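Re: that chain you flagged

S.,

Sorry for the slow reply, it's been a week of failed gels. I finally had a moment to sit down with the sequence you sent. For the record, here it is as I used it:
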Amino acid sequence: MRRFEEMKDFKAFTEISSRCYPGMKLDSKEDKERYQEHREKMNQEENIRHIGVYENGDMIGGYIEYQHMLSLYQQKIPAAGIGTVAVDLPYKKQGHAKAIIQRFIEDAREQKRPFVQLYPFQPSFYRKMGFGLGPALHTFRFHPSQLPPFPTVDPVSVLKENDKEEVKKCYHRWANQTHGACEKAHYEFKFLDLEDYHAVGYKRNGQVEGYLVYQFHQQPGDHFLQNDLYVIDFITTSQEAYQSLIHYLHIQKDQVRSIKMPTFNEQFSFLLQDPCHTDKELLYRIYHKTSEQGHGLMYRIVDVPMFMKAVESHSFGNETVKIGWKITDTFMDEEDYYVYQYTKGYPSFVEDGSDIDIHIGIAEFSSLMMGSVTLEGLINGGYVKVAGEQYLEKANRLFHNPTKPQCWTFF
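Prediction finished late last night. Pasting the structure tokens below so you have them in one place:
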């Protein structure tokens, strides 16, 4: 009989994690002890729960639940993330992973959290569980001289541990105005305490308006003068802060071989004087590689009415149309039908008939509502069935120019 309990045996979870995630490099006794201590410490945080999966008295797996507030089109909603989903190797392919995700979804519903998210080890695996793709992340790699200089902007200063509160305030100002961003707990700003992380910030009247966190990396065979700068965090709340941090990266041109910059801004290449990636690769005919792109964070709406209530103050577009959403959730064995009146893009629940019915899976509905994909794109891909063709153009225009989410919280 499978059962779920609040975790107490972190040594057993550490052993399971070491087998399920060899990349964690929990190979030695010392490594395992450090990880066990870390998990026990993190379990004291208010927003973190460690859940063990037991069968016949033995722990056979577990996961970590992260509770947070999410910025949803500048409204705040309670959400949850799940991480380190582990099922011990002898118990794989017995339905335990499915049971874990179902339990996670049920708990979120009980806690009145209409939205959950995760970082997948394999996107297709979780897509079958009803999680939709989140935004695309672009990683640019360029020489610092490719960035424009902004010499008239006030310079940045090195951030220290006593700047932590101001850095937190800066991040949360950014998160409050950024769709898809999550609030961060105090421990998520530990980069100011770590020796191998560097942080600089732009201050105005003592207030941090932007900050940059980075590390130096070397490639095999490099000598000590060859270094690459890897950006970890780049958060700004003003144009001056943005330009000051860009200038700081620009002036590293005599010290740094390349900069690796992750961003959700697909137009970042327009900032670069030479947008070409450092590997100078051609992608197709005479198209030069500028960045590498990938998907990570995945979304799932677990309570549609509660989620839609939270977005009533957001306009998805300028169209007025009544849409009947027929939403299929094969993972939870559910199918629901809701009609929403969109008045100049603002949704409100109604009980009368629709202009157009859209049959869609919960994964695709989640991606659409979060602004990761257009309705037209889903229709062209065969993920959506439509009844009421005369209103299809209006529905497409409603979701044609989505507000794309951004999230720099990891779990």
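What I noticed first: The longest helix spans residues 96-110.

Talk soon,
D.
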